[in-house]
């Protein structure tokens, strides 16, 4: 699947964002190695800290359907430059994406950059740190 098509999936998902507090809508889409797409949006809460970001929604949807090997993930928001995922999402992305996973950060103007998890979160905590 083309990068632009995955961004379109993220843009579509963004329309479902539940953002009565920030009004800042974000969409995400993951492409699994089995060629399935899972969309996600941000879901806010009156208890603000319980908000789930769009990329975590998409990842959790995929994993809960038995798909945890990702080819690519696209994230889009109405930002000046490409959107920048929060620290919590970077750590969750690190759990399920390897160095080959394309992480695409986009905005509504059609601008995007392709990056990797080590660029986004150098030295991330991983399961190999749990082994002694
Ligand atoms: O990459 C990002 C950045 C922010 N948000 C959400 C969280 C919150 O609902 C709103 C404002 O921070 O945007 C995401 O979903 N993904
Ligand atoms: Zn986040």
UniProtKB/TrEMBL annotation:
EC number from the UniProt entry: 3.5.4.5
Membership in a protein family: Belongs to the cytidine and deoxycytidylate deaminase family.
Keyword match RNA-binding: no
One CC-aspect GO term: cytosol
Catalytically driven reaction(s): cytidine + H2O + H(+) = uridine + NH4(+); 2'-deoxycytidine + H2O + H(+) = 2'-deoxyuridine + NH4(+)
Pfam families: dCMP_cyt_deam_1
Keyword terms, alphabetized: Hydrolase, Metal-binding, Zinc
Sequence positions that bind substrate: 42-48
Purpose: This enzyme scavenges exogenous and endogenous cytidine and 2'-deoxycytidine for UMP synthesis.
Protein name: Cytidine deaminase
Molecular function per GO: cytidine deaminase activity; identical protein binding; zinc ion binding
Any single GO BP term: pyrimidine-containing compound metabolic process
Domain (CMP/dCMP-type deaminase) ranges: 1-128
KW Ligase (keyword) present: no
Cofactor: Zn(2+)
């Amino acid at each position: 699947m083309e990068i632009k098509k995955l961004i379109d999936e993220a843009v579509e998902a963004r329309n479902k964002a539940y953002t009565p507090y920030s009004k800042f809508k974000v969409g995400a889409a993951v492409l699994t190695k089995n060629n399935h797409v899972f969309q996600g949006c941000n879901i806010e809460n009156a208890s603000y800290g319980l908000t789930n970001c769009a990329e975590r929604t998409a990842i959790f949807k995929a994993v809960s359907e038995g798909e945890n090997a990702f080819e690519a993930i696209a994230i889009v928001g109405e930002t000046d430059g490409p959107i920048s995922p929060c620290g919590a999402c970077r750590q969750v992305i690190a759990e399920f994406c390897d160095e080959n996973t394309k992480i695409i950060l986009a905005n509504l103007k059609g601008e995007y950059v392709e990056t990797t998890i080590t660029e986004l979160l150098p030295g991330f905590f991983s399961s190999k740190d749990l082994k002694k």
